[in-house]
Amino acid sequence: MAEHTVTFDIAPEPVHVPTGTLIVEAARLAGVDIQQPCGGQGRCGRCAVLITEGTVRRRSTLRLSPEDIAAGYALACQTVVEGDVMISVPPQEKIERRLTTDRTAAEVTVPAGYDPAQAQTIRRIKLTLPPPSMSDQTDDWSRLQTALRQQAGITETHASLALLRKMGPVLRAGDWQVTAILDAEAWDCLECPARLIDLRPGHLPDDAPLWGVAVDIGTTTVTLWLVDLLTGEVRAQVAEYNGQIARGEDVISRIIYASKNNGREELRNLVLETINALLETACKRAQADPQDVVKATVSGNSTMMHLLLGIPAESIRLTPFVTAINHPPTLPAREVGLAIHPEGTVDCLPGVASYVGADITAGVLSSGLDDAEQVTLFMDVGTNGETVLGNREWLVTCACSAGPAFEGGGVEAGMRATKGAIEEVWINGETFEPTYRVIGGGKPRGLCGSGLISLLAEMFLTGVVDKGGHINAALPTPRTRVGERGPEYVIVWAGESGTGHDIAITHVDIDNLLRAKAAIYAGFTVLAESVGVSLESVEQVLIGGSFGKYINVEKAVEIGLLPDMPWDRFQFLGNTSVRGAYLALLDREARARIKDIAARMTYLELSADNTFFEAFTSALFLPHTDLSRFPTVQAAIVS
Known about the structure:
By secondary structure, the chain is α/β, with parallel strands linked by helices. It folds into five domains: 3-88, Ubiquitin-like (UB roll), CATH 3.10.20.30; 116-201, Ubiquitin-like (UB roll), CATH 3.10.20.880; 211-348, Domain of unknown function (DUF4445) (Nucleotidyltransferase, domain 5); 369-403 and 519-554 and 572-638, 2-Layer Sandwich (Nucleotidyltransferase, domain 5), CATH 3.30.420; 405-513, no CATH class. The protein is 28% helix and 24% strand.
């Protein structure tokens, strides 16, 4: 097969590839990162590059106009090399990486009565061993096991080859006084062996921290809490965008990307890079060493868990939508790739089904739903809209793909809830002029999820958009206009923004928001109907998700995202997934509860019939095609 030279304008050296190589593959060889938010399916058009010279073949031209093609543009994920080529790569969109602010950090209360000696699976034990002699030539490993049995009551201990290799030197360096760090599912079970994680020379001080981490792998954001297991105190909270976003903004796109070439390994490396960078940041803040972290509890949806572990995820998106594994066994960190102690325990929490993962079982624990007496609706509002309905006696769950719109993705001016984000908007019904509030003050840079909800509600109630989400370009205001992406409404003029550009919401943005809110609303209504429960009988609504904490209930009801019920029934809980992981990290009983929650949940597959699609279609309007479902909104429109 013929080889061709591919030269990228931003790469130091050209690369040589065979005929038929995709441009994205050639770019990777050249060290050029071309983002593929749709997972390389050719749907988003954001990997377009300019062919300045040479021969290529375009498999697809979706998202490219005839003028684009004539100018030489091609989709890098859908175009193959057929000759020597010179390629210009336009500036790639950059995600604003400003998540680690006080906006994402919350006060965490250590569970009342926390006692690590009773609750924790990890123990640090000081041992004094009799040194060997000519009269006592017991081998080092047997000597250590005897000390553990006699001084700590541990009848059986397992150790890795790596630990056996270092054991002798450590015992002698400590002059036969050592500190052993062990993990056991149950310390009062004679048949449950302990696993040796580390052996340190000498006796460590009683007040020396024993480190663990709770990790939530979200489709959009990864959150990590660094915890002192002896006190239960969270010593650092950090968050960052999931590096996998560059290869797909939703789980389906990532599953498709993972099925191509070495995509699975690439996605695994991207999320590990994100987690390990957060680990390093958190440890620096707490003046800890990542190698001293001996336990990690990981939460996340089923796809994120599979991609972290490098387990094929293709079956998740294919009928009958079955995971490879819902409950991974505990694994040593060296096998997973986390940069904590190599022998540290990594506990990936159990999920329920393809689209209801550990983030939901952990969230249910965190919210207390599994112990509630009243009928409760729990919602995790994020890229994947998962819902749980029930109480302490029964639990039923479903999931729908909401997309990243409410997390700032898929919206031209969208961003995370950090400094510079518009979090609330008001529009004058006579002049159509907006006012807004910006997180942290100063000039706005974009709109976060709560700001988008507020803006859409205000646009609807003031007539800037109709119930179908169409912008009224005939209004007597320069705020409504036709831009490059069609009709749009300008919230902030360029001179008043922190970006130097107009901040506007387009019809495409509104369509993405309508689809997201329709999916979430349809999900919980179908779930309730499936078990014969009316929304009116739901006594409390618990909302998880990192941005849910800042939603204005009134505005969310006005666009049809939340059910129309008394506001005092709503509680916003923030990131329930990472908090559930934190509770499981601290307490073996909390961990057992999560396992029980997963076993008790009945999963409803929304794609099994047309019920969800019909509900989704009806919810694609503001607030809904059936206004009787939203009496307070109906009254506001009439008035």
